[in-house]
Amino acid sequence: MRSHLYILKVAIPVPVYRLFDYLPPLDLDPKTLKPGIRLTVPFGKGQKTAFLIGIDSNSEVLSAKLKRIEAVLDERPLLSDRDLSLLHWAARYYHHPLGEVFSAAFPVALRQGKPATIKAEKFYVLTEKGRLLNPEQLRRAPKQQQLLYQLQTERDAVPASRLNAILENWRPAAKALQDKQLLRLEGAAANATTHLTFNSQLHPNPLQQEAIEQVVCALSRFEVFLLEGVTGSGKTEVYMQVIRSVLERGLQVLVLLPEITLTPQLEQRFRQRFAVPITVSHSKLTDIQRQQAWLGMQRGDYAIMLGTRSALFTPLARPGLIILDEEHDASFKQQEGFRFSARDVAVVRGKLLNVPVLLGTATPSLESVYNVEQGRYRLLHLTERAGNAAPPKMLLLDIRNKRMQEGLSESLIAEMHKTLAKNEQVLLFLNRRGFAPTLICHGCGWVARCRRCEANMVVHYDESLLRCHHCGSEQRLLPQCPECETGQLTPLGLGTERVEKALAQLFPGRSVIRLDRDTTQRKGVLEDALDRINRGEVDIVLGTQMLAKGHHFPNVTLVVMLEVDSGLFSIDFHASEKLAQMIVQVSGRAGRAEKPGRVILQTRKPDHPLLTTLIKEGYGRFARSALAERRLAELPPYSFQALLRVEATDSAAPLQFFEQLMQAVEPNRTVRMLGPVPAPMSRRAGRYRYQLLLQSATRPELHRFLDKLMPLIAGLKLTRKVRWSLDVDPVDLY
Ligand code: ADP
Ligand code: ZN
Ligand code: ZN
C-alpha cells in the first residue's frame, strides 16, 4: 500500500477546534503508530509537539500539500486507552480544543517533546543497625548525626531528591553511613515489595470505622463517596487507613489537594505512616521533578502521589483509588485556558478506571450535597472531633454603633486581652491585604484608580506605593493629591497592613505576625513563621485566607473574623456558599488540642439568616437552605450554566462580536441567554470585558447548544480582534 494513504490525524496544542493532517514518516510502518503517542510536527514556521489521535485514509487537504511529521517521540502511548477517552470526553464536555486538553495532561517537559525517560530514583534506607543506633553516638560527625536523625524520624525509604530538599550537602555523610553499614541504597521497585506501613495506625472511632469499611467494600468498583467531617474529625486518618487497603491489593493511590494544604507537614505525615514509595507533584517543583513524579507513577514505581489540580491526569500503572481533599475548594477549578474542574473530572476518571473516588471536606460544596441527595454520591459523615478535642464555640459580635479602633471593637479588644493573659494565642482573620483598599482626597474627593482596570488602587504603605490587585500596576504613593495638589490623602477601609500597625499600638509588648501574600513571598518565610507560632513565640497571628486551610495552631484558642459583612452582599450567587465555607474553615483552626476554642465574628448584620443559620444550626443546615434558595431561583445545581467571556482593548469590539454572534445563532427555547452584559469588573488590564451567561434546565440541551455555538464563534471575523473564552460550569462569575 502506498504510504500517503495513511493520513495521521494529529492534535496540536493551539486554540483551534480541529485536528491536523500529516503524512507518516518514511522509515516507519504507519500501522505501528498507536493513538496517544507524541510526535514532532512542522507547524507554521516552526515545529510543535503534537499527539496522534488516529489514522485515516482520507484527508480534506490535497495529499501533495500534506507535510510529513518530523519525529515519533514515543514508541507506545504514555496514557492508557481509558485515560485517552477521558481526554476526549473532557474536550467535548468543556468545549475546549483537543490538543490543548492533551497538552494539559502532560508535565511541561513532556509537552516540550523531551524524551519520556527517567532516572530510576534511588532510595536511602536505614539498615537494622542504623535504625537502632542512637544518633548521639555520632556526635563527632554532626552531618552524619543529622542525617541519621532525619532518616530515623522519616522511618522511610527516602529518595535523594527529598534529602536535597531538607539537608544541604548530605552526600558525603550518606557515603560515610553506608560505609558503616548503617545505610543502604535501593531502587524504587525493590522497595515497593517490602512492608507497607509502619505500625502507627490509630484505633478508629466507630464513625471512622464505618467510613473506612464502606470505602474498602467498594475498592474494586466505581463509586463516589463524600466524606464530610469538621477539621479534626479524623478524615485524613480515614484516607490513610483506606489507602492501606488499596496498597495491600498492590494498587496505586492518587491524592489531590489544594496547593496551600499540600504542606510539608502533610507529606511528612504520609511518609511516616507508609513504607511505600511516595511522590508529590505541585507548583514549587522543577519541571524535571514533576516529570519524574509523573513517569514514576506511570511506570508503577510509586504507590502514592500527593498532588495539586494539575496532577489529576497523572497516569496510573495500577489505579486503585482517587482521593480529593477539600473538594469544595475553588482552586480545583482551573480559571484560565482549559477551564476544567478537577473534582468533576476526577469523578469521570474514577468511572472510566472503575475505581472509587473519595471526596473529603468539612464544608461540602452545594453540588456535592445535591449529588448525595440524588443518590449519586454516598455520604460518610464524621460528626465528632477525633480524639477528645471539643468543637469551637461561635459567636456573632454586633458592632453596630460600637466604638471601633481600626476595625477592632472594644469588646473584641477586651476578649483578646483575656486570652493573651492566659498565655494563649489569638488568630485574626481579614481577607484583604495591603493597608487600605481605597485612597481618597479629603480636599476634593479624588480617588486613586487603576488606569487599566475598573478598580481602586490599594494602599501599600510598607512599600510606599499604590498597587492594583487585579493587574499588578503600581504607582508611587504621593504626598499630596494629584488633582487639587493641597488636599490630604486619606486611606479608607481596612487591610492586614493597617490592622498590624493598630495591633502594635493596642497590644504593646505582644508579638504580632502578619501572614499574607505580601509578607510570605520569600521562600521559607511561611514555614519559619508557622514554626514560631507553634513554638509559642507569637501572641497574635494576623492573616488572610492563606491561614484558613491546612495549618493547625494548637495553642490558638480565639479566632476572630474582623469582617464578614462584605461577603453577604455580592452579586455572584456563589458568594454566600463561599462565605459560609470560609467561616467554618477559619473556625477549624482553633481549639484543636485539649483547650476549647472560640470564634468571634464581627458583624453589622447579626440577624442575617446566613449567619444565624450557620452559627446556630451548623453548615449542614445552611447548605440545605442555600440549596432550597438555588432551587427557587433555578440556579445550579438545579440548572446548568456556561459563561462566554469576551474582552478587547477596543471598547466597542466585544459588543460587536456579540451582535454578530446573536445574528448567527438560531433562537432556542431550552437555553436562556442572559446578556451580553458588561462583566462585573468591566475593564481589567486595559481590556473591556463583556459576558453572556447561558443557562438550561438540562445538561444535554446546554451541550447540544454549545456544540452548535462553537463553530459559529470560530467563524466570526471579529475573533481576531477580541479574546474570548467559554467557561462550562463557571464557579466565578467575575
Ligand atoms: P482531619 O483530616 O479531619 O482534620 P485528622 O485525620 O487530621 O482530621 O485528625 C485530627 C487529629 O486527630 C490528628 O492529630 C489525628 O492524629 C487524631 N486522630 C484521628 N483519628 C483518631 C483516632 N481514631 N483516635 C485518636 N486520635 C485520632
Ligand atoms: Zn484633592
Ligand atoms: Zn489594574
Write the layout of secondary structure elements.
Layout: E1 7-11, E2 20-22, E3 38-43, E4 46-56, E5 71-72, H1 81-93, H2 98-105, H3 108-111, E6 122-126, H4 128-132, H5 142-154, E7 158-159, H6 160-166, H7 171-179, E8 183-187, H8 188-192, H9 206-217, E9 224-229, H10 235-248, E10 252-256, H11 264-273, E11 278-281, H12 287-299, E12 304-307, E13 319-325, H13 342-353, E14 357-361, H14 366-373, E15 377-382, E16 393-398, E17 404-405, E18 408-409, H15 410-421, E19 425-429, E20 438-441, E21 458-460, E22 465-467, E23 474-476, E24 489-492, H16 496-506, E25 512-515, H17 525-534, E26 540-543, E27 556-561, H18 575-587, E28 598-603, H19 609-632, E29 640-648, H20 653-664, E30 671-684, E31 687-696, H21 699-715, E32 723-728
Parallel strand pairs: 9-14, 9-15, 10-12, 10-13, 11-12, 13-14, 16-28, 19-26, 19-27, 25-26, 27-28
Antiparallel strand pairs: 1-2, 1-4, 3-4, 3-5, 6-7, 6-8, 17-18, 20-24, 21-22, 22-23, 29-31, 29-32, 30-31
The site of one zinc ion has 8 residues, from loops.
Catalytic activity: ATP + H2O = ADP + phosphate + H(+); Couples ATP hydrolysis with the unwinding of duplex DNA by translocating in the 3'-5' direction
GO molecular function, one term: DNA binding
GO biological process, one term: DNA replication, synthesis of primer
CATH class of the largest domain: Alpha Beta
Q: What is the CATH third-level topology name of the largest domain?
A: Rossmann fold
Helix content: 25-40%
**Oligomerization:** single chain
The dominant shape is: globular
Number of domains: 5
> Which residues form runs of ≥5 with pLDDT under 50?
189-193
Radius of gyration from the alpha-carbon trace, in angstroms: 28 Å
**How would you sum up the major sheet?**
7 strands, parallel
The main sheet orders its strands as 11-12-10-13-14-9-15
